[in-house]
Amino acid sequence: MSVRVRFAPSPTGFLHVGSLRTTLYNYLFARHHGGTFILRVEDTDQERFVPGSYEDILASLQWAGMTPDESPETPGDCGPYIQSQRTELYRRYATDLIERGMAYYAFDTAEELTAMRDRQKAAGVAPRYDRSSMRNQYTLGEEETKRLLALGEPASVRMKVPITGEVKFNDVIRGTIVVPCKDVDDQILMKSDNFPTYHLANVVDDHEMRITHVIRGEEWLPSTPKHVLLYEAFGWEAPKFAHLPLLLNSDKTKLSKRQGDVAVRDYIAKGYFQEAFINFMALLGWNPSGNREIYSMDELIKEFNLDHVNKAGAVFDLKKLDWMNSQYMKQYVEHKLDWLTDEFMVLLAAQGIETTHDYAAKVIRLLHERITLLPDLVRFSEYMFRKPVVDEEWKATIWNDGARQLLGDLHEIIASVDATSFDSHTVHEAIGAYTKEKNVKFKDVGNTLRLAVTGKSVGAGMMDTIALLGKEETTARISGFLASN
Fold first, then answer.
1. In whole angstroms, what is the distance from residue 407 CA to residue 400 CA?
2. What is the DSSP letter of 214?
3. Residues forming beta bridges with residue 243, ordered by sequence position
């Protein structure tokens, strides 16, 4: 049987990084086995729908490079399945369960259900639907049920869970799981608004779409017994289940926006490289063989399997993500510099900075090891394109009459270097000769030059910086600084 998997998000907010990790594992699994990856939007909970979230899901997956393989409508159009467009299908299956005694109508109001839970709480009983005492098909009888339905009385459809026995299923990651039926609630399958709940729509769609493996987050593990019972009620073969570990904060609590960004769009906006982010996400809970950290998408596809997915939660380590992004920065400088420069120039243009492709590429080579993200390079390198803004706090620690005299001498030395051979080596030799003659520390020379030329206390080597800026720009900056200070 060909592998078929799906990612099934709900449009109730911007795509969570945990959901992207789930998508990625489904995608890698499908590609590894030459199977099919499906996108299905589970939007039947209309009350929780968040405008813009559907578009964000599609945009985030497109950025991540994970395109679904088939469409419900047009061959070649790989768009998502939309559950709200399939409600008639779910109603038909719910009716089938009722007719075969596997589900039943319930007419309880929200107030009646609240009162039931309050009684159970007072009695110290775990909250679950009490089939024997509430207003449903079994307590009202068939005739009264038909009468209420004919009158248009709001009714939900609930799954009839066996009172005795157990639900048993195997999880690829967690092994055999057994749950007593008495611990499984008579879950609502169709709400009184005629929309299905997640549980019914999920099972029906996985069957209709011939899903072979359900790879989803650990938070869905408690729902799986209900789904297994539905598969048994319909007489269908259940897919294989694999529940992925949670993503955790550094303090081992569940990843939450209270402690940082959790939406994929936030990391896109910050400028993380797509390949670095995908590489990082792949290793959150899955450990390929060997001691490598850097993998291309093709390599991830080749290596991926569910056997090496961990049970324990994975810490979303931002320091690790930053390190990985810096590793990709180095790779791009060596192997994709033209592309990287194009991206850099777009960011520069957004700040009103115009330059040549060649000069921008040289700036990247000079400064890329000092930063993690490309947008950071725009901010960090601004003095390479514009008159520098001086760090006044740092200036106060090094600027004095001696530094003024030193800077004046350095201006003359740099101005005397032949323009036709002006590079880091010739500048270094000229200044080196001066330091020996005057017995001046090269550290003081570097700091004084850095103050006048860049305004920053940190940066690339000053000789390399001066060489890239050029003789004319460097001497103009020094003279300008002396004139205003």
1. 11
2. E
3. 216
Q: For the chain, give the number of residues.
A: 485
Q: Order of strands, edge to edge, in the sheet holding 240-244?
A: 175-180, 166-171, 240-244, 213-217
Question: Over the stretch 399-422, which tens digit does the pLDDT of each residue have?
Answer: 999 999 999 999 999 999 999 999
Same domain, 65 and 130: no
The pLDDT tens digits for 347-399 are: 999 999 999 999 999 999 999 999 999 999 999 999 999 999 999 999 999 99
Q: Are residues 296 and 369 in the same domain?
A: no
Inform me whether the pLDDT recorded for 90 exceeds 60: yes
Question: Mean pLDDT over residues 34-49, rounded?
Answer: 90
Considering the domain architecture, whether residues 298 and 284 belong to the same structural domain is answered as yes
Q: Flag whether pLDDT at 261 surpasses 90.
A: no
Give yes or no: residues 378 and 393 share one domain. no
User: Catalytic pick from 182, 252, 257, 302?
Assistant: 257
Tell me which of 280 and 485 has the higher pLDDT.
Answer: 280
Helices 442-453 and 462-469, interaxial angle, to 10°?
A: 40
Distance in angstroms (rounded) separating the CA atoms of residues 355 and 8: 45
Q: What is the mean pLDDT of residues 329-333?
A: 97
Q: Do residues 363 and 426 make contact, with C-beta atoms less than 8 angstroms apart?
A: no
Angle at 358 between CA 356 and CA 364, to 5 degrees: 105
**8 A C-beta contact, residue 258 and residue 7:** no
Range of the structural domain that residue 22 is part of: 1-71+245-335
Name the residue among 22, 15, 31 with its Cα closest to residue 63.
15
d(CA 364, CA 374): 9
121 tagged catalytic: no
**Which run of H or E residues covers position 413?**
helix 401-416
Query: What does the block give as tokens for 262?
Result: 């959790």
**330 domain residue, yes or no:** yes
Burial class (CB in 10 A: 0-12, 13-18, 19+), 238: buried
| 41: three-class secondary structure by DSSP | strand
Give the C-alpha separation, 258 to 433, whole Å.
57
Residue 240 DSSP SS3:
strand
Pairing of strands 36-41, 81-82: parallel
